[in-house]
Amino acid sequence: MGSPHPSPLLKLVAEKLNAPDRALAYGTIADYFSQTSSFVEASNIVSKMVPSSPARVEAIFNCVTNWVNSDPATALQWMSSLPIQEQKRIFPGLLPLLSKPEEFEPLLQYANSVGDPNLQSQIVARGVDILVSSGNLEAAKNWVLELPQSLRSDAQASLVSRDHQDSVDQLTPVALGITDQGPQMTALQSLAMRLFAQNPVEAGDWIARLPASAQFAPLIQLTFKWYNSDSVGLYQWVQSLPKGQLKDQAVKSVVSMAENSNPAFAKSMSQLSGK
């Protein structure tokens, strides 16, 4: 027996319910029809709801999550027809569901149809995750290089963070070559934490070899992790640094973290500045 037609239900909802209850009812009905693969009916029901209202956004999210595993192309194509503000609110919640190799092409088509650069970057970064997770590291590298410059930075940062086959030294030029500051900081922090997990001193020495303009973000990340795991080791590393900007930045970072919880340590650290 097939699914009931939504028209009688919608007529009843429109006639009998007030606006708040009507919104909830529309969402419930849309969710039901999306689960029965009735894409057209579900999308028509959503179209009756107030744009960008919480009930409509929830209904869209439920519909897309019901569809994305069985038919990602249809789900993402429908997403692309929605107002961009709704897409930006919904897409982050879909990230855990988009992980299969067969979802890569629909994601790429979706990225090409979206006019918002920030949302495009999120989509492209997810595409990198899918390729790397499926073992296609070389394909991910080649695809990133072919992306338009406007989308490449976030994709490169995602690639650096996910690439555990290449060494940190091999990935460092990739991270430094990222043109946008935010993604570059993300990539460098990721590499610093990868080294920190192996040997904090090696992570610190790696930061010291970076260009001065690229040291600040990974240094802050390193000093935070190191202070909370081995403050004595951190002190010894900072003490060993030659006089200069990196040492002063390290001292300032640690003092700001320790001055309330461990004022004696903060005072000792502050005395290393300028030495």
Characterise this structure:
The protein has 275 residues and is mainly α. It is elongated, with a radius of gyration of 25 Å. It is built from 17 helices and no strands. 36% of the residues are buried. It is 75% helix and 0% strand. Helix 11 runs antiparallel to helix 12 and helix 14 packs across helix 15.
Short description:
The chain has 275 residues and is an all-alpha fold. Helix content is 75%, strand content 0%.
How many individual β-strands? 0
- Judged by helices, strands and strand pairing, the structural class is mainly alpha
Question: Helical segment tally?
Answer: 17
Q: Helical percent range?
A: over 70%
Morphology: elongated
Cα radius of gyration in angstroms: 25 Å
Distance between the termini: 82 Å
Content of β-strand? under 5%
Kindly state the mean pLDDT as a whole number?
84
Order of helices and strands: HHHHHHHHHHHHHHHHH
- Unreliable spans are none
Q: Could you give the topology of this structure?
A:
Blueprint: H1 6-16, H2 19-35, H3 39-47, H4 54-68, H5 72-80, H6 84-94, H7 104-113, H8 117-133, H9 137-146, H10 149-162, H11 168-176, H12 181-198, H13 200-209, H14 216-229, H15 231-240, H16 245-258, H17 263-270
Helix pairs in contact: 1-2, 2-3, 2-4, 3-4, 4-5, 4-6, 5-7, 7-8, 8-9, 8-10, 9-10, 10-12, 11-12, 12-13, 12-14, 13-14, 14-15, 14-16, 16-17
What are the main properties of this structure?
275 residues; single chain; mainly alpha; 17 helices
